[in-house]
Every structure is written in C-alpha cells, then in structure tokens.
Amino acid sequence: MRLWSYRIPIPLLLEAWGVQYFLWGVVSWLLWQLWGAQIQRAGIACILTRVLPLSILTSILVEMIWVLCFPNLPLNRPHMAYWHRLWFELSEELFDNVVIFWCAFGLFRGMGYYQSFREKEDAANQLEAQLAHAQISALRMQLNPHFLFNTMNSISSLMRTDVEGADMMLEQLGSLLRITLERGDAPLIRLRDEMEFIEMYLAMQDKRFVGRVQQSIKVDASLYDVLVPTMILQPIVENAYAHGLSKIDKGGLLAIEAHEDRGHLIFSVLNTGIGLVPDSSKRTGGQGVGLANIKGRLQLHYGDDHSFQISEIGRNTVQVTLSIPLQMSQSEEEETARFVAQ
Prior knowledge:
- This protein is α+β, with helices and mostly antiparallel strands.
- The chain contains 8 helices and 7 strands, in the order ααααβαββαββαββα.
- It has 2 domains: about 110 residues, no CATH class; about 180 residues, Histidine kinase-like ATPase, C-terminal domain (Heat Shock Protein 90, 2-Layer Sandwich), CATH 3.30.565.
- Helices cover about 60% and strands about 15% of the residues.
- The chain has a 5-stranded mixed sheet with strand order 2-4-5-7-6, covered by helices on one side. The protein has a two-stranded antiparallel ribbon with strand order 1-3.
- The longest helix is centred in the middle third of the chain and has 77 residues.
- It is rod-shaped, with a radius of gyration of 37 Å.
C-alpha cells in the first residue's frame, strides 16, 4: 500500500481485517457444525456440483456483509453506492475469499482423514492388546494345570511315608488355588502378592523335602508395590526343585532375591543341585514348560525391554536372573490389580 501511495490509518486497517477474519471464522464454524460430516464424505461429483457453487456464493455473501460494515471504504476514491462498492471489492477480493473457503474445506477434510486414521489406529491397538491378553491367558491356562499336576505328584509321593505331611500339603494347595482364583485374569499383580504365593509354595516344598533344602528369601521392602506378571517366580522355583534340589539328599540351597537396578526390577533365584549340563538332556530344548511359558509372557508384556538368563555360576550351582522394567503400583486400580484384569 505504501508503494502504491495508498494511505489508510492502521486502526482502520486492523479493524477491516479483524471483521473479515471474524466473518470467515463464523462461516467456518457453521460449515463444521452443519455440514462437517458431509464435507468429509463428499465425493468428486458432490464437490463440483455443490461445494464449488457454495464456495462462490459464500465468498460473495461474506464480501456483502464486509462492505456493509465499512461504508467509507475504499479511501481516496469518490463516494460510491453500496452496489458499486460491492462490485469494486469483489473484483479485488472474490478470488482470495474463494481460496479461504477452500482452505477451510481442505482443513476439514484433513481433520476427517486424521480422525479416521486415529480411529483405525486405536482399533488396531485394541485388537493387538486383546490378542496379547488372549495369548497371556492361554499361557496361564497352560501353566496352571502344569503347576497343579506337579504339586499333586508331590503330594502323592508323601502319601505312603508322611500322611500328615501330605494332608497339610493338600491344605496349602487349596490356599494356593484360592489365591489364584482371587486374582482372576489380572496379568500384573504387586510383588507383595507374588511373594505371598511363593512363600506358601516354598512351605509345601519344605514339607516334602524336609531337612534337605535351606530356603532363603531377600526382597527389598521398598519393592513390595512393584507390579510383576502373575506367577512369574513359581515356575522358576519349581524348576529349581525338579531339576536340581530333588537330585540331592542333603545340603541343598534355594535363595531368592529381588532388588532394583537402574529402573529395573532384578530377580535372582539360585539353587544347588547337579548343575545344568548333566540334566540338559532331560529338558525340552534345555527348558521346562514353565520356563518357556515365562519367556513367552515376558515377551508379550515387555517386548525387548527384559532379560532372562540361566547360568551355572559354580560347581553344581545354577542361577536364574530375571530383569523387568520397574513399574510401581500407585493408583487404586493398580493396587487392586489382583481382583481386576488390567
């Protein structure tokens, strides 16, 4: 305007622009509220036969209202009647108004595509989560009968030698099954609840291997509210007894530890026995059902952000080390996770 020597007061210029943007804001809002869904579904034929004429008519209507609001514009020209001023402004602004309309139309179409994309993405994520939950449930269904079968074998082995001990193991098994039923389908529980289950399981094994195994549990008290996968330790402990401690007559050691290290919860289960190499031929691919089950569940829960290692750290001494991300149970929903599925 300065190059054209066209002088206009800044307040008037800002007022004219403000009214113009306000009018287009109202038009855009009305388009979204009244025809938002139709705009997102409109095909080529609808765009050419309806939207294109609408864009021209709307642009003219906006300019008519704007010219009505500023009777003294344009400046530096003789006074003109309303229709003359409208024709003058349309010759300068009609194309710009049509462009603004189609920018709003394109924005609405883009919002529709983005919303549709997010809905499909959310649906895919929900399906993926449901699939993972179904896989975890299937693994747990595989694990529970395996645990029950092995425990019943342990009770059966005591029936002829220690009837009272077998009866006590049956009571303890009933308590373990009650705990399992109370947890329902919850994939994650507090470490406190997992250790309660492990302590009851160890009590059963102590009754079976009385005087043969020294048990030790060391868990940092600050970690009791950390969330862990359900029955994540029991298969490891069961494997320690089945493939190590049950092979020796005395002096056995089972040590369970849990501590934090750089944002991860570290489990360590150490047991004595006969080591890894002599017993490896008796396992399926070097792993029992329980250990393979654990690896599958860890992969579903944490992806690659976990580790699971079995190593022989000394003469006839095996250690299982498990690392998972540290996830504290803080909300009420998490604290009652053993009753409600996540």
